[in-house]
Amino acid sequence: MLLHLPEDHPQRFALHNEVHARASFNIKLPVRASHLALMLSADEKMQERRHLTLLCERFGVAPPEKDTDHFSAAFNSFQIRWEQHGEFSTYSFYVHDSPKDPFADSALNQVPADWMSQLSGQVIVAAHTTIVSAGDINFNENSDITLLSAYFVENPIIGSKVTGGAASVFTDFRIHTDGFSRFLIINHGLRSEQAGRLLQRLFEIEVYRVMALLAFPIARKLYPALNKSDRQLFKITSAMTLPENNDAELLDELTTLAAEVENHISTNHFRFAAASAYYQLVEQRVIDLREVRIQGIQTIGEFIKRRLEPAMNTCSSLSHRFTLLSERVSNAGQLLRTRVDIILERQNQSLLSSMALRAKMQLRMQQMVEGISMVAITYYAANLIGKLAEALHILGWKINPQLVEGVSIPLILLITAIGIRQVHSIIANTMD
After folding, report:
1. How big is the CA angle at 172 (ends 166 and 177), to the nearest 5 degrees?
2. Phi, psi (deg, nearest 5) at residue 169
3. Cβ contacts of residue 278 below 8 Å, gap of 6+?
């Protein structure tokens, strides 16, 4: 019975089916494979999708859907597997036969040359791989391993038994004169699914290790800038301890240094973070190989760890040092700003004290002026009353003008004082 469930989340099926994306490729044995990883711009990614469609139209094969980022199909004499990643795209070409010389005739020779010449992007990885049986190359477990170096131009080889002993993998991790690296896989009992997964892991190890190393040249280039910034910070913090230093100038220098450090971090953060992620993928793919040592040669995991780990540690160390330097610059900046704020606060306090003293002096002067004003007002008012009394005396009033003038002085002072107090009260009420 069909149950009535709530509405599906818009991404439910896409997220559920993501686990099946880029599934391992089932191949027939024996097989020759060629793998390309191309760095692409945004415009080139659009071009490569159209270019892949042209190949499908030439052979009458259904092209990839518009929004898909992986595609596999069988053409007349070869199979292709295409994947588009964030920074690069990969092409794997498969031809199901076993030539006498594993690397004499690559799988790419079956792909139309004109189509290959029009591929977009820049090659970051190119590798040939051949899966053969031990009888195809007259090899057995008792054979001298060094005989296999003939397939690698006599270079020292690296290898191991993988996939639970179902195969042996050999390589020299070198780019040969044709521009490709090489992997030779001897089949001891691989199934079709195992062979597809093994090829995919080897190709991914080759691509991801190179992508991880893209950060290494940047790290070496940035080391002088890091050391210069470190010395400059030491110079600034040392100057901060001196009593005669100019904090404002030091703060300007520190702000400029902080901007430079943050610019380095923001410019290269993605590359270093990507390097760490790619290296983790390399380590996981090496684990997935399930290597068993072959006496006398290094395993793939040992070789990669010895050669790749120091470079990744360098990148990680530089990224970490830049982060610590940014924190130290920030701490020094906060300390210097605190010192500047304290100096400004002291200056403001001194200014306020000076202003308070001036206000107090002005108050004293105002009080003195008020006192003088009271005397002046009293003097003129008493003089007026005296003149009035003299006029009345002339008119026949029996009064003593001088006595009247003298008696009026205290009264005038009292009235004037009361008036000034009333004015002060009105001003105080207005300010409140």
Report:
1. 125
2. -115, 135
3. 208, 209, 211, 212
Q: How far is CA 289 from CA 74, 166, 360, in A?
A: 27, 11, 89
Q: d(Cα 222, Cα 216) in Å, to the nearest integer?
A: 10
CA distance 361 to 173: 90
| Three-state secondary structure call for residue 90 | strand
Q: What was the pLDDT predicted at 205?
A: 95
Contact (CB, 8 A) for 120 and 40: yes
Instruction: Classify residue 105 as exposed, middle or buried by CB count within 10 Å of its CB (0-12, 13-18, 19+).
Output: middle
Average pLDDT over residues 104-111: 90
Q: Please tell me the distance from the alpha carbon of residue 397 to that of residue 395, in angstroms, as a whole number.
A: 6
Q: Which two tokens stand for residue 358?
A: 């001036």
The percentage of residues in the chain with a pLDDT greater than 70, rounded to a whole number, is 96
Query: How would you list the strands of the sheet with 167-171, edge to edge?
Result: 70-74, 79-84, 88-95, 31-39, 122-133, 181-187, 167-171, 158-162, 292-293
Q: Give the span between the Cα atoms of 252 and 237, in whole angstroms.
A: 13
- What residues does 79 pair with on adjacent strands? 74, 94
Check residue 339 and give its pLDDT.
75
pLDDT band at 22 (very low <50, low <70, confident <90, very high): low
Burial bucket for residue 329 (CB in 10 Å: 0-12, 13-18, 19+): buried
Q: Are 32 and 107 in contact (CB under 8 A)?
A: yes
**Cα separation values, 344 from 84, 237, 263, Å:** 59, 20, 31
Q: Is residue 168 over pLDDT 70?
A: yes
Q: Which residues of 19-45 are buried (b: 16+ CB within 10 A; e: fewer)?
A: eeeeeebebebbbbbbbbbbbbeeebb
Query: Residue 90 pLDDT > 80, yes or no?
Result: yes
Give the predicted TM-score (pTM) of the model: 0.77
Please state, in angstroms and rounded to a whole number, the distance separating the CA atoms of residues 10 and 266.
34
Round to whole Å and give the CA distance between 341 and 329: 18
The count of residues in the chain is 432
Helix, strand, or coil (residue 58): helix
- Cα separation, 30 vs 130, whole angstroms: 8
Task: Return the pLDDT at 413.
Answer: 78
DSSP string across 131-144: EEEGGGGT--TTS-
User: What is the rounded CA–CA span in Å between residue 47 and residue 50?
Assistant: 5
Q: What percent of the chain has pLDDT over 90?
A: 45
Instruction: Give the Cα separation of 32 and 23 in Å (integer).
Output: 20
Reported confidence tier of residue 88, pLDDT bands at 50, 70, 90: very high
